[in-house]
């Protein structure tokens, strides 16, 4: 699996991001266990345009860099802070600029791609946001989202690190599962060609 690039997308605009810590733990486990290359697209580090329906070639600057990272990666671990019971507006804006082959560009980077899903929130109240709001966004793209998402709360962190062993292990397993799903998709003609229904 060594040639595959697993991109962590961090949908937080906070420089000191819990979501980034969680996503990086998953990426590191995938690198350790399966030898994948990893990279991070953290929205705090990019000054993105606002999506307005133009084609992917119409963007400039940081937006091009961010979209190129997505187009060039093979699989993804996508993390978001929960905002108002949903994923962040910054992540929504990014997803609104990613083509799915039919509109805004011929490329469809998320189509048939393995995607691990992560969310962090203040408390347990909104743990279902990752499955009920973020997962459908990737269904829209015809991605293969790993079945078990991972959710962490403020109580799982201590001085910027994830202190809860069960959460650490779950994130590591999610990273490994994403790399393994990417390999399985590559080996399967059916999984690699299904795409979205419409
Ligand atoms: C605008 C805003 C809305 C938020 N809404 C929620 C929410 O609905 N539910 C929740 O559990 N936490 C909510 N939070 C807390 C964040 O999700 C939580 O602190 C998260 O871990 C921050 O991740 P980050 O450090 O990667 O930015 C909100 C935070 C902000 C700034």
SSE topology:
Elements: E1 5-10, H1 18-34, E2 37-42, H2 62-72, E3 75-81, H3 89-95, E4 114-121, H4 129-140, E5 144-145, E6 150-153, E7 157-158, E8 161-162, H5 165-187
Parallel strand pairs: 1-2, 1-3, 3-4, 4-5, 4-6
Antiparallel strand pairs: 7-8
Helix pairs in contact: 1-5
Residues 12, 14, 17-19, 81-85, 120-123, 125-126, 154 line the site of flavin mononucleotide (FMN).
Gyration radius over CA: 16 Å
Looking at the structure, what is the overall shape?
A: globular
Strand content: 15-25%
Tell me the name of the CATH class.
Answer: Alpha Beta
Give me the secondary-structure category.
alpha/beta
- Number of separate domains: 1
Number of helices, counting only DSSP H or I runs of 4 residues or more: 5
Average pLDDT, rounded to a whole number, is: 96
* Biggest pleated sheet: 6 strands, parallel
**Proportion of helical residues:** 25-40%
Which stretches are low in confidence, meaning pLDDT under 50 for 5 or more residues running? none
Question: What CATH architecture do you see?
Answer: 3-Layer(aba) Sandwich
Quick overview of this protein structure:
The chain is an alpha/beta fold and 198 residues long. The chain contains five helices and eight strands; from the N terminus they run βαβαβαβαββββα. It has a single domain (5-187), classed as 3-Layer(aba) Sandwich (Rossmann fold), CATH 3.40.50.360.
What does this structure look like?
The strands form two sheets. Strands 1, 2, 3, 4, 5 and 6 form a six-stranded parallel beta sheet that branches. Strands 7-8 form a two-stranded antiparallel sheet. Helices cover 35% and strands 19% of the residues. It contains five helices and eight strands, in the order E-H-E-H-E-H-E-H-E-E-E-E-H. Helix 1 (18-34) links the parallel strand 1 (5-10) and strand 2. The chain has one domain (5-187): Flavodoxin domain (Rossmann fold). The protein has helices spanning 18-34, 62-72, 89-95, 129-140, 165-187; strands at 5-10, 37-42, 75-81, 114-121, 144-145, 150-153, 157-158, 161-162. The two termini are 31 Å apart. It is of the alpha/beta class. Helix 1 packs across helix 5. The relative contact order is 0.19. It binds flavin mononucleotide. Flavin mononucleotide (FMN) binds at residues 12, 14, 17-19, 81-85, 120-123, 125-126, 154.
